[in-house]
Design goal:
The protein has 269 residues and is of the alpha+beta class. It folds into 2 domains: 1-31 and 246-269; 40-240, Exo-inulinase, domain 1 (Jelly Rolls). The chain has 2 helices and 15 strands. The strands form 2 sheets. Strands 1, 3, 4, 6, 11, 12, 13 and 15 form an 8-stranded antiparallel β-sheet that branches. A 7-stranded antiparallel β-sheet has the order 2-5-14-7-8-9-10, with no helix packed on it.
């Protein structure tokens, strides 16, 4: 009897482990997840291009979030040629081709003109050299924008309008993906996570791979040389090769349930 119980437990454990290996595959080694609860962004690299010109940004962790602040563009001669006030943070250790990236937006500067969101396929990060893609929300137009970035200059690939402005006190979920050069983006209110407030897609293959991260930038200085800076707080960032599969948990349950039943029967003998 003891032998049969042990055998049932052992076979169940081995089979369960095999299921997990099949479900997880090798892509989990490239998955990234950060909730910033430890008040650290270890593994991230800050991009703060205005710091050398007297306008240093900041990267802090209020209430377990990740707040990025870009200081207003300095007024010294020539500074307006540097482009808008902006700051970014990205993870340089992992490069993606296809990707699924998401983050919560939990707070932002109100009564301003700014954009904030996700970066992907980043390369040659630096002042007027950065290349990649961006999925951002602009709070002055209530638009979700997909952009291609070359030399830090964005080119709009597509936009989608939200029906109304983001509500202070709500948190929002931003999702950005690339599947075989089809770039897609959506934004959700976490109070109704199954309904997208806006979505868009565009095929583009000009940036084949690179790093992922977060960005904020001021929209006022792009039009009139004024600058209010930019300020947004993120949380629960994740990136992987592909979207999580909702059916995976059900598959585990379906395969493990017979094993658990077998164990119970063995114990009853």
């Amino acid at each position: 009897m003891h032998i049969s119980i042990y055998s049932a437990r052992a076979s169940g454990f081995v089979a369960f482990s095999f299921v997990l290996v099949l479900l997880c595959g090798t892509d989990t080694t490239r998955a990234q997840s950060y909730n910033f609860n430890n008040a650290s962004d270890a593994g991230w690299t800050h991009y703060d291009p205005m710091a050398s010109f007297g306008a240093q940004g900041s990267f802090t962790f209020p209430n377990g979030g990740y707040r990025i602040v870009a200081a207003p563009v300095p007024t010294n001669p020539g500074s307006t040629a540097l482009g808008p006030s902006r700051a970014a943070s990205y993870v340089p250790s992992t490069s993606y081709t296809d990707f699924y990236e998401s983050v919560d937006i939990v707070n932002w500067q109100t009564n301003s003109s700014q954009a904030f969101g996700l970066l992907a396929h980043l390369s040659t990060v630096g002042l007027q050299t950065t290349s990649g893609y961006a999925l951002t929300f602009a709070d002055d137009t209530n638009q979700l924008t997909l952009s291609s970035i070359t030399g830090e200059a964005p080119t709009t690939l597509g936009t989608a309008n939200l029906g109304s402005a983001l509500q202070v006190g709500h948190s929002y979920h931003l999702v950005f993906s690339d599947v075989s050069n089809l770039l897609s983006g959506s934004i959700y209110d976490n109070a109704s996570p199954s309904v997208a407030l806006a979505s868009l897609s565009k095929t583009d293959s000009s940036k084949l791979s690179g790093n992922s991260g977060l960005v904020i930038y001021d929209l006022t200085s792009t039009t009139n040389n004024a600058s209010n800076g930019a300020d947004a707080t993120f949380d629960n960032y994740s990136a992987a090769v592909s979207a999580p599969e909702p059916g995976s948990a059900m598959l585990v349950i379906a395969m493990v349930a017979p094993m658990m039943l077998s164990r119970r029967r063995a114990r009853a003998r």
